[in-house]
Design the sequence.
């Protein structure tokens, strides 16, 4: 079933509903009325021991060879077979098996010498089992398979649209986020955030509208370092977040719905008219810089059964309550950085790594969450553990005995308890 | 923007673990006895939210008298463990954490098990939920507040007279080095601030050795967020004064008197308020204690607390007998956070008497040597005044400053000299008696104003704004008035060669220079079109110089006893020069990094610079009229490679190539020749060409080791070649009279290295320091002597090794040795060489309380190829005692040069001569000194 038929079917079913909508060239309407409102006070989030919160945690050292050595993980995508990693240091995309064994690599050019060769975010097409990416010039799409083999290069021709933030919803179907567009055509009524696109060029439908009156605003947006789409193990479902907004939207081939809406305490919430009020015009970033307790965006949003995982971004460098786990059934709120490593995690690091501030809990495959630690941190912890009698897994034993603090980063795969 | 935030977070995490978490250990060792064997284990938690409180503070007191026994920060698991606590007596533990209510509990460590495991200490949040407010009646000794480490001064019980430096010595992880450097767990403290500001110009010791510990509320250690170097930002130490101690004064009145009419007076008074600092200081002595600026003088009068060191000692190497007076004032005022004014005034007067006796051997040719014996006496006086003011205004992305200074100087000297010269080949002898009275007055003004602006990224508009531009204008004006009378009497065993002069010289000189330098960086960055392969900077410096000189010279008419104008030497001249140096600089840097492993950076720089030089001279004397223009290309290039292997080592290699050009001045081209300079007649050479130098410097730096023990090695290799080098052509007649002028010679070459090694080891309270420096310089200097080309090769080496040991600031000892050698070979003559060897030992002890003893001994050995060895030893010792309430009184007995052996050796060599001799110096004296330190803090506002 292709996207067009899907949309038409759903449209037929829900055409009478209102509020949030995907308007399309076909004038389709899709909605959700059952938004879940969540009152969350991050400053009151709990902690706990790793064994209280994790069902299991596995450290996966990523094999270090001359070929596979990389710096740090800027982007991680988890497929059925591979961890796919983008590294800015070496300007490469690397494939490791689920056991951490090096599988393949796509080497970009030397971006130190020529910045135009820098590889931008890659997208995974789970239907065709390929990844596609562009370099800084954004003139060509490079298609590779999961063995690192180049399949094709498709040049973007003059007049064709440029996409950068998007995800695949099907073999040849995308949903594209354009953010705020300060340069709307004069005759446009309103702007919109999302486009449903087919064949990389044909827009099927649009969604998430905003009023033209608030423009220009894009220059005044402070975005988190990840997003705006987050996958949590279902190929055709993504969470989507908007700037200066506390809602998590669910994007599916069928349409967009507002899944969760957070209400934060006054001292950490942005003014409700932050976007509309002209007094804030061109002062929004400054306001956030000066009010470092204000949550300016959500990111890293995932759902695994009743656990909703998200990051409430602030500019406060000491904030330990940014990465949160909310149990939808019990209302338990846990701050990830208050979780204490213990025997179940071999007293090895579980949070607050050097890279954690950038990427946080960087991926979710529906069963597990993923984050990473540098070998420098792992070995520091290992040395501190010398006085404890810890039973490391065979994989970790091999890593600590044969490896060194110069090895590749180590992935941490975490399964959360369902009942928190 | 957000990446910057994340980088900041990352850095904070790294620094936090490197610098601060090392503090989770037990400190403040108390008097231990057999009951100090107990151990306490525990855990601090927020039980409501179910997490441990990392870095919470735990303090243990005796329950009966509230004496603080020990404290520490909880570790990453919220756990703590105290060792060596008394068993069998009631103790109290207090746990505190920012934003939480502190809790206490009492316990006894059983004497039999010697161990107690406390129940988890559960802290509850303070009700008002404001992180800034810490609802604790009793503040903990140390705590983490955000990323600032804070020590509560009141928690550290010290002598009532202790100063901040004594407090710092007691703080865990803080080290004060023998050279004054302060480190916190190996991290160097870049600035010591008082209430967030520099204190009396920023000399660390003025703050740490004067401010009493009891005036301090807390000491904060934090990384400087303003620092542009985000990877290795500066660490600052801020002394926060108590609310009622934000103002105060401190000072010193001291005097000493000793044998041989030796005396020393010192006075200093400094006052400060929150916005203003003012200091007055003065000193007078005849024991070779001198200072060149007002900051140094203030530093000398520091109070110091328990660990009294000797750093204001007589300089026994200073030539002659000296009487030195100085005084000055500093003023600083902060109008607001952006605007500040600083002003300094310094006065100094030195009177000096030198008696010297030297012998110079001049090689004339293979067989002939000129032996010159010289005996001289001179009385010199130098009075100078210097005032400067500095106004700064900082804008958000630019800063503006005006610095100005005025100086006045008056010098006089009276010299008498007898020189006898013998030519070993011809046996010709001559004798020159000369006498000079000189008086020299100078006044000058300097103005320095600049504006520096930088291009920045505006977050609001997402655009880069402004430009990278620095413009500096300098003006210097100088007026000089010089008067001199010189009597020269030359006699010889060769008849008819005698000469006699009695001349008076009067010179008025006025000169002014204007210079404008412009530095316009990253021109391509203005295009705003992505990144560029090179960074291009434009630099220009334009300087104009103008000097007018009027000289009147007269010879004494013995009949009329009047000075009659000498038409050959009397002159008026006007010299002007214009120096323009435009240049384009191309820089490129490439960084290759692997997160958490290494960062390697290659950078290359090419500076295409031109130098245009124009000089004009107008003079009464036709031969001095000059108008010459020169143009040269003076390129420079460098390659640098930096390799930072995180946690292992840091290496830096650089290769720099520079070119420079020296232009001959009027003195070298066409000077007015004064025939009264019998032994050294300087002529001009109008055909002199500019000298052009190529120089290459290769540098290597290694820094490594752990945070506690560190090592630092640096090596520099320098090689150069000068085309058309300015060298001497000297013609000696049989009587040793030298007529010389400057000539161009081909290819002067030189090569040399400088290396240093610095290592530090800390073992508990013991600290060992090793430093070694070594240098070698070799040069080939062509020249002419009596018309034949002579190549002189010289080799200098210098090696210094010193070893230091200190224990808690109570004991300091050191050993050092330095060796200096010089060797010269010249075609057709015997080699000349000399060596100086100095071996020293020093020790200091601060014990018992209020008593300090220090002593140092230096053994000097001087070896020369043509004279006998000279050996001597200088041994000094001091003992002092502090008394009165507040230790405001000090009595000190000093015995200097106890062995009465101090001698000053003169040893130097140049192209074809080597000189050796002695000068009178300060010798043995004993002195008793008394000092009173007036001090009050919190004197103005109560």
Sequence:
């Amino acid at each position: 079933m292709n996207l067009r038929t899907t949309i038409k079917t759903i449209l037929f079913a829900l055409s009478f509903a209102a509020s949030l909508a995907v308007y399309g060239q076909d004038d389709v309407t899709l909605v959700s009325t059952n938004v879940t409102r969540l009152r969350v006070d991050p400053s009151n989030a709990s902690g706990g021991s790793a064994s209280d919160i994790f069902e299991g945690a596995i450290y996966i050292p990523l094999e270090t060879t001359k070929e596979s050595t990389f710096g740090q993980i800027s982007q991680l995508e988890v497929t059925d077979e591979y961890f796919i990693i983008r590294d800015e240091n070496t300007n490469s995309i690397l494939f490791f098996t689920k056991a951490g064994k090096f599988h393949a690599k796509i080497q970009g050019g030397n971006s130190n010498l020529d910045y135009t060769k820098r590889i931008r975010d890659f997208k995974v097409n789970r239907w065709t089992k390929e990844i596609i990416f562009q370099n800084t010039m954004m003139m060509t799409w490079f298609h590779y398979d999961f063995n690192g083999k180049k399949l094709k290069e498709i040049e973007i021709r003059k007049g064709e649209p440029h996409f950068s933030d998007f995800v695949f919803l099907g073999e040849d179907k995308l949903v594209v986020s354009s953010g705020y567009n300060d340069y709307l055509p004069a005759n446009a009524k309103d702007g919109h955030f999302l486009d449903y696109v087919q064949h990389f060029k044909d827009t099927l439908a649009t969604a998430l509208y905003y009023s033209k009156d608030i423009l220009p605003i894009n220059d005044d947006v402070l975005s988190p370092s990840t997003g705006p789409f987050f996958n949590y193990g279902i190929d055709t479902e993504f969470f989507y977040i908007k700037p200066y907004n506390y809602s998590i939207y669910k994007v599916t081939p069928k349409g967009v719905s507002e899944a969760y809406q957070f209400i934060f305490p006054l001292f950490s919430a942005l003014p409700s008219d932050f976007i509309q009020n002209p007094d804030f015009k061109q002062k929004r970033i400054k306001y956030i810089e000066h009010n470092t307790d204000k949550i300016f965006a959500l990111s890293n949003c995932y759902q695994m059964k009743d656990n909703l995982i998200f990051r409430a971004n602030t500019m406060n460098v000491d904030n330990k309550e940014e990465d949160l786990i909310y149990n939808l059934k019990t209302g338990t709120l846990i701050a990830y950085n208050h979780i204490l490593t213990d025997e179940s995690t071999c007293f090895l690091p579980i949070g607050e790594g050097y890279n954690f501030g950038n990427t946080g809990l960087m991926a979710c495959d529906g069963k597990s969450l993923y984050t990473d630690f540098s070998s420098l941190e792992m070995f520091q912890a290992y040395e501190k553990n010398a006085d404890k009698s810890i039973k490391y897994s065979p994989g970790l034993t091999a890593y600590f005995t044969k490896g060194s603090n110069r090895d590749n980063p180590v992935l941490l795969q975490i399964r959360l308890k369902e009942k928190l | 923007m957000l990446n910057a935030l994340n980088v900041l977070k990352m850095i904070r995490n790294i620094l936090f673990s490197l610098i601060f978490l090392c503090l989770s250990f037990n400190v403040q060792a108390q008097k231990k006895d057999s009951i100090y064997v107990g151990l306490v284990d525990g855990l601090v938690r927020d039980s409501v939210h179910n997490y441990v409180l990392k870095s919470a503070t735990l303090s243990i007191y005796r329950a009966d008298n509230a004496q603080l026994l020990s404290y520490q920060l909880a570790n990453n698991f919220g756990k703590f463990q105290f060792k060596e606590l008394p068993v069998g007596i009631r103790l109290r533990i207090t746990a505190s954490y920012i934003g939480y209510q502190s809790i206490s509990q009492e316990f006894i460590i059983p004497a039999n098990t010697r161990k107690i495991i406390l129940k988890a200490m559960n802290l509850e949040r303070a009700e008002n939920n404001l992180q800034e407010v810490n609802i604790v009646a009793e503040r903990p000794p140390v705590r983490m507040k955000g990323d600032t480490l804070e020590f509560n001064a009141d928690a550290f019980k010290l002598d009532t007279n202790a100063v901040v430096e004594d407090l710092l010595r007691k703080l865990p992880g803080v080290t004060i080095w023998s050279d004054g450097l302060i480190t916190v767990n190996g991290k160097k403290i870049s600035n010591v601030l008082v209430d967030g500001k520099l204190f009396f110009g920023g000399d660390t010791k003025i703050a740490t050795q004067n401010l009493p510990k009891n005036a301090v509320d807390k000491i904060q250690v934090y990384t400087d967020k303003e620092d542009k170097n985000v990877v290795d930002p500066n660490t600052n130490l801020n002394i926060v004064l108590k609310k009622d101690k934000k103002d105060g004064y401190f000072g010193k009145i001291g005097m000493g008197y000793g044998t041989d009419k030796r005396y020393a007076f010192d006075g200093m008074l400094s006052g400060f308020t929150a916005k203003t600092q003012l200091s007055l200081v003065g000193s007078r002595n005849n024991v070779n204690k001198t200072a060149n600026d007002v900051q140094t003088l203030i530093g000398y009068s520091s109070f110091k607390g328990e660990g009294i060191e000797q750093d204001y000692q007589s300089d026994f190497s200073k030539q002659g007998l000296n009487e030195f007076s100085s005084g000055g004032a500093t003023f600083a005022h902060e109008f607001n956070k952006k605007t500040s004014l600083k002003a300094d005034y310094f006065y100094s007067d030195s009177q000096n008497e030198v008696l010297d006796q030297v012998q110079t051997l001049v090689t004339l040719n293979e067989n002939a040597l000129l032996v010159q014996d010289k005996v001289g006496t001179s009385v010199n006086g130098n009075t100078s005044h210097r005032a400067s003011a500095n106004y700064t205004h900082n804008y958000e992305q630019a800063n503006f400053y005006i610095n100005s200074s005025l100086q006045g100087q008056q010098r006089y000297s009276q010299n008498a000299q007898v020189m006898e010269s013998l030519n070993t080949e011809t046996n010709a002898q001559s004798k020159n008696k000369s006498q000079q009275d000189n008086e020299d007055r100078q006044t000058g003004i300097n103005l320095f104003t600049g504006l520096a602006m930088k291009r920045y990224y505006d977050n609001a508009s997402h655009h880069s704004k402004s430009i990278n531009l620095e413009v500096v204008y300098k003006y210097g004006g100088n007026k000089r008035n010089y008067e001199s009378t010189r009597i020269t009497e030359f006699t010889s065993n060769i008849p008819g060669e005698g000469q006699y002069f009695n001349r008076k010289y009067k010179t008025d000189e006025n000169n002014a220079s204007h210079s404008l330098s412009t530095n316009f960086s990253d021109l391509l960055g203005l295009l705003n079109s992505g990144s560029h392969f090179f960074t291009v900077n434009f630099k220009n410096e334009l300087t104009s110089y103008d000097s007018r000189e009027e000289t009147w010279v007269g010879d004494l008419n013995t009949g009329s006893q009047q000075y009659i104008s000498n038409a050959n030497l009397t002159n008026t001249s006007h010299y002007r020069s214009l120096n323009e140096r435009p240049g384009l600089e191309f820089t490129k840097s490439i960084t290759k990094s692997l997160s958490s492993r290494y960062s390697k950076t290659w950078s290359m720089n090419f500076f295409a610079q031109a130098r245009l030089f124009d000089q004009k001279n107008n003079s009464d004397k036709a031969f001095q009229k000059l108008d010459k223009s020169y143009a040269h290309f003076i390129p420079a290039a460098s390659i640098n490679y930096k390799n930072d292997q995180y946690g292992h080592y840091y290496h830096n290699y650089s290769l720099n190539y520079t070119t420079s050009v020296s232009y001959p001045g009027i003195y070298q081209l066409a000077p007015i020749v004064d025939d009264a300079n019998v032994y050294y007649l300087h002529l001009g050479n109008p055909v002199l060409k500019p000298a052009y130098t190529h120089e290459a410097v290769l540098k290597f730096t290694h820094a490594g080791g752990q945070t506690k023990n560190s090592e630092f090695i640096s090596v520099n290799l320098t090689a150069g070649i000068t085309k058309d080098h300015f060298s001497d052509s000297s013609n000696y007649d049989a009587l040793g009279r030298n007529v010389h002028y400057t000539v161009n010679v081909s290819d002067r070459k030189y090569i040399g290295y400088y290396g240093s090694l610095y290592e530090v080891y800390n073992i508990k309270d013991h600290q060992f320091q090793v430093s070694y420096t070594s240098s070698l310089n070799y040069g080939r200097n062509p020249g002419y002597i009596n018309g034949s080309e002579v190549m002189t090769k010289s080799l200098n080496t210098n090696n210094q090794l010193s070893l230091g040991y200190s224990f808690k600031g109570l004991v300091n000892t050191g050993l050092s040795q330095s060796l200096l050698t010089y060797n010269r070979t010249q075609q057709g003559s015997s080699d000349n060489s000399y060596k100086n060897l100095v071996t020293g030992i020093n020790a200091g002890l601060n014990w018992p309380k209020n008593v300090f003893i220090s002593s140092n001994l230096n053994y000097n050995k001087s070896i020369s190829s043509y004279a006998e060895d000279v050996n001597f030893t200088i041994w000094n010792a001091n003992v002092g005692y502090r008394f009165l309430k507040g230790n405001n009184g000090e009595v000190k007995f000093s015995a200097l040069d106890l062995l009465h052996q101090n001698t000053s050796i003169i040893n130097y060599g140049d192209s074809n001569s080597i000189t050796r001799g002695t000068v009178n110096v300060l010798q043995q004296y004993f002195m008793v000194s008394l000092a009173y330190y007036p001090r009050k803090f919190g004197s103005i506002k109560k």
